[in-house]
Amino acid sequence: MKKILAILLFFITGNSFAQVNEMEKDLILERTIEFISQEFEDTDIDFTGIIEIYYFLMDNPLNLNQATAEDLKELRLLTDQQINALISYRKSLRKILSIYELNAIPGFDRSTIDRILPFVRIGASTLDQVNWKKAFKYGKHDLMLRYQRVLEEKAGYLTLPDSILALNPNKKYLGDANKYYLRYRYTYKNNLSIGLTAEKDPGEAFTFNPQQKGFDFYSGHVMVQDLGVFKKLVVGDFQVSFGQGLNIWTGFNMGRSAQVLNAKQYGQGLRAYTSVNEGNFMRGVGMSFGENKWQTTLFASYKKVDAVLQNNDSLLLEDYVNTFQLTGYHRTEKELAAKNTIGQMNVGGALSYQTENFKINMTGMYTHFDKNIEGSDLLYNKFDFNGTSQVSIGVDYQYIWHKVSLFGETASALNGKLNTINGVTWHVDPKLDLVVMHRYFSLANQNLYVANFSGSSQNENGIYFGFLARPTSKINVSAYYDQYQSKWLKYLVDGPSVGSAIFFQIDFDLSRYANFYIRYRNKLKERNISSSDASITPQDFEATHHFRLNYSHSVNKNITVKSRFEYAFYDFNKTTSKGIVLFQDVIYKFNKIPLKLYARYAVFDTDDYNSRIYTYENDLLYVFSIPALYNQGFRTYLMGKYEIGRKVDIWVRWSRTTFINEKSLSTGLEEIAGNHRSEIKVQLKFRF
What we know:
Elements: H1 2-13, H2 22-37, H3 48-59, E1 62-63, H4 69-73, H5 80-93, H6 110-116, E2 120-121, H7 132-135, E3 140-150, H8 162-167, E4 178-188, E5 192-200, E6 207-209, E7 212-214, E8 217-227, E9 230-241, E10 269-272, E11 282-289, E12 294-305, E13 307-310, E14 320-324, H9 333-337, E15 342-354, E16 358-373, E17 387-401, E18 404-413, E19 418-429, E20 432-441, E21 460-472, E22 475-486, E23 497-509, E24 514-528, E25 539-554, E26 559-572, E27 575-589, E28 595-606, E29 613-614, E30 628-629, E31 632-644, E32 648-659, E33 664-665, E34 672-673, E35 676-687
Parallel strand pairs: 1-2, 14-16
Antiparallel strand pairs: 3-4, 3-35, 4-5, 5-8, 6-7, 8-9, 9-10, 9-11, 11-12, 12-15, 13-14, 15-16, 16-17, 17-18, 18-19, 19-20, 20-21, 21-22, 22-23, 23-24, 24-25, 25-26, 26-27, 27-28, 28-31, 29-30, 31-32, 32-35, 33-34
């Protein structure tokens, strides 16, 4: 009876969403990634992993009659209560017959269903055993080739006399301005993945010698799932993530975002690594196995990492490291000299016990470097890790009771300094969800693989409040307030300090195809003020405010438009700066030919870099683009995607940023003589 009522309700109200066309899928995916990434705009966070998950799920939607709680958590779009409600509903009625039934599940409103629709399906529940002979015969091959280049010539590529290079070899890049990327994947359902990824960054040499075989970076893996006693086995490059990111976490971790209820992190355990970030992964072997309620994960890794070696004054002592090179660039003699200079070994694992509503996980890891790590002499780095070896342990938990979910993690390294995150989410009623989370990171925290909610790893005590309200079926109100304090010095802060972040957004679903939202964001933190008196370093609050209006509309199955206005205001030490950005997007899909076009025209006017505004852009498959716009000018891009049958996809993208009052752009080897910067990207994907 409940199923019939749910289906009738949707037909009566006209909210049919059984079919989502390609344009709507693109819009939902774009918005999801943009909302997740908003707090990482000015960082080098690699989003390839999370982007890849969403694209994979679009091609291979989760079967809601078979998906486990862990599968649903991977979406990062549902709360614990929603996941539990879906699984309970499925158990009570044995299976879900129609996508319309989701509306009958507690906590599933229209906006939630719209968000997950591109990534889920309704199918029969099957428990077929994996046929490994078929796995190596009937899998899917994907080969991707990418080329990109900045069209204007940068200073690092100019021809210089040998006499100048002899005196300063770092005044020129070793390679050309081209970027090359190759990616091969063989997959069979979720049970087998074999991958190879290779990349050469702009400025790096593409050469063959004993130290380099063509590309500058290679990554590969073989991963199997449900093979004998192994739930998962990975050989090669992989990532591990558990709990709330306080002890063992490599890869992307959700922070503050427009998905305000996602303060809780969902550790995904063991995963194959498929990105090109040259530092944030492990290389070796990892495995997960277990039965019923118990599961064990073990891993061992050894790889060379980039670091700057320092000569020791004593001839009796070895060189040491005080700076890791995290960019992955090897464009100059100096950068190349830091490549693979230190060996790093990691051995660790996790033991978990899980029931329907409760989970506890114990983690531990041993790390060893083959050279001594000595931190800098700067006072704010006083409590950083020094030495060659480190041991860390942690315990994380989750308990769901009716509409309430409790979660947290506590971890420590050998120095005994505890770090902890604890929180609660509460599904008050269908119109309101709340989340509260407290975090405490010791100023002497020395855990090496921390990737938690705030982005900080030590010297922080904070509390986060968030809510999502649904006053009507077409209006959502979301907000958070985050406040924190630090008792010790930080970079650019020579004393104890406090800070906060505020987010507020109202979404209006004007129709199934049109959405309008209003957003306000504020960040406040203390920072040093330059002073002529060297004995005193005064501090003031640095404040940034952003106000945004955004309208998106799928006009029909061929045309989607998006318009945005954003205003930024910056205030620090009686100095203010402001800026605006206006842009218009158009996406057009042809009927008679398999071609889709993307276009944007943006105008920006800011007083300086402090009032910069970041804008998410459509880009090639698995490529993340969110450039900062500042000073005065305009930016445009054009991209086309053409499908040749079902076997080949081609992307071509051109972009240009023009600055009105500039005669040169950037500095050093990246300097461009002129007022514009243009880039071309070409990508081919073959399926066979």
